[in-house]
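4.2 Preliminary Data

To establish feasibility before requesting continued support, the project team ran the inverse folding procedure on a target of 275 residues. The structure was first converted into the token representation described in Section 3, and no sequence information of any kind was made available to the design step. The complete token record follows.
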């Protein structure tokens, strides 16, 4: 084996070890989240339609400590703690509870989202776990995507009229409401149906396993979508920002599809939003 190939194998092995650690962290976080006494959960607001519970904060602390113990050279970027750690090896991107409003209302559509970037900044693995439904979505770059260990793929829907779209209104950007609902009407009238689950990570994974065909939302954060993006890509899907002048990390306006329908949805967004 050449040195170059040996390094590639070691890199893959390292990512798989990190994936195992992320899965264990997600399961542990899920057990903690599920064990909380709802009558004692403390909830506060971070801004317009943006809730945080003490469960979010404690869960992120658990995940960060679990991963830092195993990978002390890695950095950490979480929704509640922000950017911390050395970041000499790579960086973990974590949303402890994606779908906090669902969680505090006992709606089962919330997830633990953990992604990892290698030392070059390349998104390399994603883990999304729904504790209420015991669904673990995983992906490592170049190794495919899985749901509870079973390989998954995006749908093969080719006709917009057969597509199910996940549509998330701009609840944190009311100034975009008119444009957004014009877009929603345009898509609704030309597709089979629409859905809304309340966790961007879960919605990306639902495209990855073929349950829905497209998803778009404005103003998300990188920790909301990093793990789901990795899983979707490995399942054969596609994601992009709304326009070439935006980036997903900075702007958070994401379009995600099964790939086949991406151009069609992108054209609708351009027509209705880029004015």
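Position-by-position output of the design step:
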């Amino acid at each position: 084996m050449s040195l170059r190939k040996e390094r590639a194998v070691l890199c893959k092995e390292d990512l798989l070890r990190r994936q195992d650690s992320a899965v264990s962290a997600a399961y542990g976080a899920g057990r903690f989240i599920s064990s909380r006494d709802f009558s004692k959960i403390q909830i506060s607001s971070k801004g317009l339609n943006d809730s945080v519970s003490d469960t979010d904060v404690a869960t992120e602390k658990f995940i960060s400590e679990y991963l830092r113990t195993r990978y002390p050279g890695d950095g950490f970027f979480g929704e509640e703690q922000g950017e911390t750690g050395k970041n000499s090896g790579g960086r973990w991107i974590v949303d402890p509870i994606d779908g906090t409003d669902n969680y505090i209302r006992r709606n089962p559509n919330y997830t633990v989202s953990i992604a990892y970037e290698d030392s070059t900044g390349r998104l390399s693995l994603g883990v999304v776990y729904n504790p209420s439904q015991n669904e673990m979505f995983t992906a490592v770059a170049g190794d495919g995507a899985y749901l509870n260990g079973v390989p998954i793929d995006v749908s093969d829907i080719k006709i917009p009229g057969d597509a199910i779209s996940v549509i998330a209104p701009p609840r944190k950007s009311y100034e975009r409401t008119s444009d957004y609902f014009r877009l929603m009407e345009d898509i609704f009238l030309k597709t089979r149906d629409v859905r809304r689950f309340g966790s961007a990570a879960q919605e990306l994974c639902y495209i990855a396993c073929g349950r829905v065909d497209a998803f778009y939302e404005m103003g998300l954060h990188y920790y909301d979508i990093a793990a789901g993006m990795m899983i979707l890509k490995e399942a054969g899907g596609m994601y992009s920002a709304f326009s070439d002048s935006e980036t997903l990390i900075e702007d958070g306006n994401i379009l995600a599809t099964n790939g086949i329908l991406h151009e069609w949805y992108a054209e609708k967004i351009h027509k209705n939003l880029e004015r």
